[in-house]
Design a protein that fits this description.
CATH class of the largest domain: Alpha Beta
CATH superfamily of the largest domain: HUPs
Distance between the termini: 38 Å
Oligomer: single chain
Number of helices: 15
Number of domains: 3
Bound molecules: zinc ion
CATH topology of the largest domain: Rossmann fold
Strand content: 15-25%
Shape: elongated
Number of strands: 16
Length: about 450
């Protein structure tokens, strides 16, 4: 399995054999508001990764977190007059609901910051002891100048960072504007805090990911993932404090970053009013179409979510479903042709190679479309149809997580009754009435096929 590493800017081979663990960490959400489509993209990319390595026989140990101790949670919960943990729990539940809706398989562990406070205090103590951190009246800071590799991941120059960091976390006690908080002293009125050797307070943002990944995934990580907006300062800081704490590098063999999400022509931002949150996603969209749309682009590239892109993805998913379902109708007998076996096995190899090579989902999907274009349902026999079906079931359902068999329970019995009515007209040789029913169903996207075993139907779009 090869992954593009943001740090070295090249492909890194994880050198794993089936049966071995692939250990990784993905930065999770801050549950102060609804998770949105940007979070969905990252979750789907790592779900595809998780599903693929599982299918290839590796053992994934993927860990993620909930930042339930954070400025944004404290501010919003104060405004709403609820406890910060009640607010965090509400949006954690919504996140799980959204993941379930999107058919995302659960990762190995999701850990809240509030579950690891003693471990964080221990890590901060060690960083102070090793000379990488210092205590001030408003908290404990990581000393960037104690870590010469700082800036390597993001490729930032010291001058740029000074400006940015000074704006993000101003403090009169910092020795260097780039230094960042490991522990923040309690401010008046704050409702979540813990005792520590440096007074009451709470962790800074970055230290949680170091502590949770080392404790629950392991060190070093095979990969560390997240949105590309996290590269600086979050991942730069995580890398520095983790390697300083462990006295070894690298923290992660590969740093994986998902590209940005555009809504139409623009990046998604709350301030632009083009924010698509969990509630809207679950009420307006087909989860499989969202999944297809967001995974049909290679994860490092920007992806555009627009009405046009959605409609196109919907059309493609509908065609894939229809192809998949029509394979069940094949009744032609005959020997399995060797060229069909060859086509399928080459498609399978190309599919696996595309995903083994930095999870190139767009190349993997195009192998599937190529195969389907070469093998029309009308031309294959029963044995061949089974092979194609098995291939699609593995690639699209197991690895890509798409549900190809439509849920027909809602109005299936009604359609079946109408089909029965048409059959009774046909038995009475009332062909014109029977045709009227066929055309009426067609108007609603229901296609009938009369076979010697009876009449079958599918939904076409
Ligand atoms: Zn993180």
């Amino acid at each position: 399995m090869k992954l593009y590493d943001t740090h070295s800017r090249e492909l890194v081979d994880l050198r794993k054999k089936p049966g071995e663990k692939i250990v990784g960490y993905v930065c999770g959400i801050t549950p102060y508001d609804e998770p949105h489509l940007g979070h969905v993209r990252t979750a789907l990319v790592f779900d595809l990764f998780h599903r693929f390595v599982t299918a290839q026989g590796y053992e994934p140990v993927f860990v993620s977190n909930f930042t339930d101790v954070d400025d944004k949670i404290i501010e919003r919960s104060a405004k709403l007059s609820v406890h910060p943990f009640a607010l965090a729990e509400k949006y954690e539940r919504l996140y799980y609901k959204l993941m379930d809706f999107l058919n995302v398989e659960p990762l190995y562990a999701y850990i809240r910051v509030s579950q690891v406070i003693p471990d964080i205090i221990e890590a901060v103590k060690q960083l102070i002891d090793k000379g990488h951190a210092y205590v001030t009246p408003d908290g404990v800071y990581f000393s960037v100048s104690s870590f010469p590799d700082y800036g390597e991941l993001s490729g930032r120059k010291v001058e740029d960072m000074s400006l940015l960091e000074a704006r993000v976390e101003p403090s009169p006690f910092k020795k260097d504007p780039r230094d960042f908080a490991l522990w923040k002293s309690r401010k008046p009125g704050e409702t979540i805090w813990w005792h520590s050797p440096w007074g009451d307070g709470r962790p800074g943002w970055h230290i949680e990911c170091t502590v949770i990944s080392v404790k629950f995934a392991g060190f070093p990580l095979d990969f560390h993932g997240g949105g590309s907006d996290l590269i600086f300062p979050h991942h730069e800081n995580e890398k520095a404090q983790s390697e300083a704490l462990m006295g070894q590098k690298p923290f992660a063999k590969a740093w994986m970053h998902t590209g940005m999400l555009r809504i139409g022509e623009e990046e998604m931002h709350k301030s632009l009013g083009n924010f698509i949150g969990a509630t809207e996603i679950m009420s307006k969209y087909d989860p499989d179409v969202v999944r297809y749309l967001l995974l049909s682009t290679y994860y490092r590239d920007p992806v555009t979510f627009s009405e046009e892109a959605y409609n196109q993805a919907e059309h493609t998913v509908s065609n894939l479903r229809s192809y998949f379902e029509r394979l069940d109708w094949v009744s032609k007998s005959g020997e399995t042709r060797s060229q069909v076996i060859y086509l399928i096995s080459s498609a399978r190899d190309a599919f696996n190679n595309a995903l083994e090579s930095d999870l190139n989902s767009s190349a993997a999907l195009s192998e599937i479309h190529k195969l389907i274009a070469q093998l029309r349902v009308e031309d294959v026999n029963v044995g061949e149809a089974l092979l194609v079906k098995e291939f699609l079931s593995h690639t699209l359902q197991t690895v890509f997580g798409l549900r190809l068999t439509r849920n027909r329970t809602v109005d299936e019995s009604l359609i079946q009754d109408v089909v029965e009515l048409r059959n009774s007209f046909r038995r009475e040789k009332k062909f014109s009435e029977a045709d009227d029913i066929r055309n009426m169903l067609l108007k609603h996207g229901i296609v009938l096929e009369d076979t010697k075993d009876g009449t079958r139907w599918i939904r076409e779009q």
